[in-house]
Model the fold of this input.
Amino acid sequence: MNWNLAEFSAAYGTAAQLPPCTSPEIAFAGRSNVGKSTLINKLFQRKNLARVSSVPGKTATINFYHCDSVIFADLPGYGYAKRSKSELVRWQELINGYLQGDRDLRAVLLLIDMRHPPTANDLQMVNFLIDTEMPFAIVLTKADKLNKTERAARLAALPDELPQYEDLNVTVFSSVTGEGVDVLRALIEDITVPAE
Done:
């Protein structure tokens, strides 16, 4: 896959607007401000492919990007409370409509802030992905913000914090150092690019 060829495709605000699936898809999920846009920009070596916002809850749409023959879907962040109930319902219906639709979804990359234990919303998403038998991997973001001792402590705590931890695919990621980028690219290529 030529990672430099990524382009923004479209954004959709309701499940009814979502286009039919025509290619393998990878989705990025996680709470607001966990670093989804930053991860996307790092994967594709682009500064402004995905808009990075310092304001949590800014992404209210599913943003689609394409690269070669793969579609990447950036799902709205969950867990940001400063929204009206109707807006939160729309978000939920949008995300559920995408995840439960008839799509060639090869994996969900679920981003969790490595500095903190998984939130209730993170655990709800992990359990949803396990229950629906949807392939997914955990990406621990903001690793560069921890020192060695803090990092070791967080990694040691995760087996007790995440359900079925021994079966999970977990990658540590840093947009600053680039840690995890090659691992995630290899994972994505492995499940989306046909064997020669």
Summary: The radius of gyration is 16 Å. Strands lie at 7-12, 25-30, 62-67, 70-74, 105-113, 136-141, 170-172. The chain has one domain: 3-192. The CA atoms of residues 53 and 164 lie 33 Å apart.
